[in-house]
Design brief:
Keywords: DNA-binding, Transcription, Transcription regulation. InterPro entries: AraC-type_N, Homeodomain-like_sf, HTH_AraC, HTH_AraC-typ_CS. This is AraC family transcriptional regulator. One of its GO terms (molecular function) is transcription cis-regulatory region binding. 54% of the residues lie in helices and 10% in strands. By secondary structure, it is an alpha+beta fold. The strands form two sheets. It has a five-stranded mixed β-sheet. The longest helix has 20 residues.
């Protein structure tokens, strides 16, 4: 199981940020096997691991540690594909941000989770899932996502009078003073979540590009594509997707997984048995697949990987890894 994928539209956003820093992105893209023909096909996706390494290399190239903020500031609405066009034609800001979050899966998917919206009183909390621990390989992603959401909502509203607060999981970086300049609102670090908080009343503002006919047409297309992604998968693939997210620091159970699928435990057991597998087999296989990807494709320490996969200790993870592969995590990483 891969760590996830993102559309090449995000690569284009990164490339444009590199250009704004006075550097040519083409040599770097070629180094990562991302030539122009690939970027011209919006259906193409790249692994999140490759995107993380590309982002870190771009930060080194530009010498701009806050490259993620530059990405977010200049991200075009087309970055989100059909979901972006749906948001652009939505009647108001609430329906616009709902479109970006509900159909995020059309341009990106991560084993770490998915973005979601929740309401508390007059506050709308737009949450980007945790991707901790944070390093140069992934912090730029959280920065660019939250800023691109806020920038897009302000652009749709005009004038840019949308008040907000921004929260990040990671500690204040050395370039923390840049955040207020880019976000133009209070920014808080070392928080429990990555999220953008906006008043519900602010989201009632009309979208200056609203187009009811286009919105309804695009909504039908987005919903159809989302259903195709969801229901074309076998039951074991749906279970593996849930397990990969619930493993983050926890222990997934059959009861929890069945509940998320809207099934009883007995029904889920039966459906998996019809596909010649079981919940425990899928749990073990998902752990193995993710372990191999984390060891091979990320710079995470083995302690961090152990936590992400729900092991009680780094030693327990290393014992399990050697039982699965006949090699230690260190031996596998050295071969990369």
């Amino acid at each position: 199981m891969k760590l996830g994928n993102v559309s090449v539209t995000y690569i284009e956003t990164l490339a444009n940020a590199i250009r704004r820093c006075g550097k040519r992105p083409e040599p770097l893209l070629n180094e990562f096997g991302l030539a122009l023909p690939t970027l011209n096909d919006e259906q193409q996706q790249v692994s999140i691991a490759k995107f993380m390494h590309l982002g870190a290399a771009a930060i080194t190239l530009t010498q701009e540690p806050y490259l993620g903020l530059i990405m977010g500031q200049h991200a075009p609405i087309q970055q989100w594909g059909l979901a972006g066009l749906l948001a652009m034609s939505a009647p108001n800001l609430k329906m616009a941000i709902t479109a970006l979050i509900d159909y995020e899966c059309l341009t990106s998917e991560s084993v770490r989770g998915e973005s979601f919206i929740e309401y508390s009183g007059d506050s709308c909390h737009i949450n980007f899932y945790s991707i901790s621990p944070y390093t140069v390989y992934n912090q730029f992603i959280a920065e660019s996502v939250l800023l691109s959401w806020l920038k897009t909502l302000r652009w749709l509203a005009k004038p840019e009078n949308l008040l907000a607060e921004v929260f990040f999981e990671f500690p204040a970086p050395a370039y923390a003073n840049q955040f207020k300049q880019f976000f133009k609102c209070p920014v808080y670090f070392s928080q429990p979540f990555n999220k953008l908080v906006i008043s519900v009343s602010s989201l009632t503002q009309s979208n200056r590009f609203r187009h009811h006919v286009m919105y309804n047409s695009l909504l039908a297309v987005c919903e159809q594509k989302k259903k195709q992604l969801t229901f074309s998968a076998r039951w074991q693939e749906r279970v593996a997707r849930i397990l990969s997210r619930e493993l983050h620091g926890g222990q997934p159970t059959l009861e929890l997984t069945a509940s998320q699928l809207g099934l009883s435990q007995w029904t889920l057991r039966r459906k998996l048995n019809e596909e010649n597998t079981s919940f425990q087999k899928l749990l073990n296989q998902t752990r193995l697949d993710l372990a191999l990807n984390y060891v091979k494709e990320t710079p995470l320490s083995f302690s961090e990987i152990a936590y992400l996969l729900g092991f009680s200790s780094p030693e327990a993870f290393q014992r399990a890894f050697k039982r699965w592969t006949k090699q230690t995590p260190g031996q596998v990483r050295q071969k990369q």
